[in-house]
From TrEMBL:
<keyword id="KW-0446">Lipid-binding</keyword>
<keyword id="KW-0830">Ubiquinone</keyword>
<dbReference type="InterPro" id="IPR013718">
    <property type="entry name" value="COQ9_C"/>
</dbReference>
<keyword id="KW-0831">Ubiquinone biosynthesis</keyword>
<keyword id="KW-0809">Transit peptide</keyword>
<dbReference type="GO" id="GO:0008289">
    <property type="term" value="F:lipid binding"/>
</dbReference>
<dbReference type="InterPro" id="IPR012762">
    <property type="entry name" value="Ubiq_biosynth_COQ9"/>
</dbReference>
<dbReference type="GO" id="GO:0006744">
    <property type="term" value="P:ubiquinone biosynthetic process"/>
</dbReference>
<feature type="domain" description="COQ9 C-terminal">
    <location>
        <begin position="162"/>
        <end position="230"/>
    </location>
</feature>
<keyword id="KW-0496">Mitochondrion</keyword>
<comment type="function">
    <text>Membrane-associated protein that warps the membrane surface to access and bind aromatic isoprenes with high specificity, including ubiquinone (CoQ) isoprene intermediates and presents them directly to Coq7, therefore facilitating the Coq7-mediated hydroxylase step. Participates in the biosynthesis of coenzyme Q, also named ubiquinone, an essential lipid-soluble electron transporter for aerobic cellular respiration.</text>
</comment>
<comment type="pathway">
    <text>Cofactor biosynthesis; ubiquinone biosynthesis.</text>
</comment>
<dbReference type="Pfam" id="PF08511">
    <property type="entry name" value="COQ9"/>
</dbReference>
<comment type="similarity">
    <text>Belongs to the COQ9 family.</text>
</comment>
<dbReference type="GO" id="GO:0005743">
    <property type="term" value="C:mitochondrial inner membrane"/>
</dbReference>
<protein>
    <recommendedName>
        <fullName>Ubiquinone biosynthesis protein</fullName>
    </recommendedName>
</protein>
Amino acid sequence: MFKSIATGSLVRPVSALWAGRSALAGSLLQQSKAMYHSYEHEDDPFFNKDSPKHKILEKAMDYVPEHGFQHKAILESSRTFGYSDAIQSLFHNGTFDLIKFYLIRERLRLKDYITTEEFTSLPSEKEKLKFLVKKRLMANAPYAQHITQLQTYLVLPPNIGEASQELHNLSDDIRFYSGDKANDFAWYSKRLSLSSSYVALELFMAQDKSPNFVKTMELADKRLSGVEDLGQVYNDVEEFLFYTVNSGINLLKSQASRG
C-alpha cells in the first residue's frame, strides 16, 4: 500500500520517523511496572504556572486559531505582556514548546471531569474511557483547522520522542481515570491500543466537516468499543504509519519548494 507514495530517497527520512517512535514504544514495553500517572507529575518545571514562560504560552493559545501552532503566536503573546522580543530565548524549542504546552495542558484538564456527576454516573470503565477521549478530542475544536499542522510537527525527528511520551501519558491517564488498575502486560497492550486509536481519531477529526464534529464522535464510539481488540491495534498503527509517510513527504516537498 505504501509503495505508491513512498519512493526513492523520501523513504529513508520518513522511515526514520517511524523507527524513532517504535524504539520509544519498545522501551516503554520493557518497563516492569506501570508507575506513571500525571497527578504525580503536575510539578513539572515546564508547567510552572508562576513562570513567565507559562503565562506567555497560555496567552499564546489565544492566537493559535489565527496563526496556527507557529512561533508567531508566542511572539504576539509576549508582546501583550510588554516583554521585549529578547524573551524569546526562553523558548529553546520554538514552536514545539507551544505544542508541548498545549498537549500537557489538555491532558491535565481531563482531571477536572472525573469528579463530576456526569462522569461518575457512567456505568462502566469503557463508557468512562469514551467520555474522556471525546472530551480530549473536543478540546481540539477551537484549533481544528491546525490539527494536521500540529501532527506534522509531532513526527519531526527532534520532537517524536517527547511527542510519543506525551501520547503515552495521555493514554495512561485516561485508562487510570476510567478505572483500569491492571499492572501486568495487559497494562501495556491497553495503552498501546488506546494511543493508536486516539491518533486515528484525531487524524479523522482534522478532515471532519460535520457540525460539532459529530462524525468524529460517532467514530470514537465505534472504535473505542473494540479498543482492546488486538486486530484493531494493528489496523490503527498501519493508519498512523500511512499518515506518517504522507506528512513526512508533504513536509519535505514544502521545504523543497521554499528553496
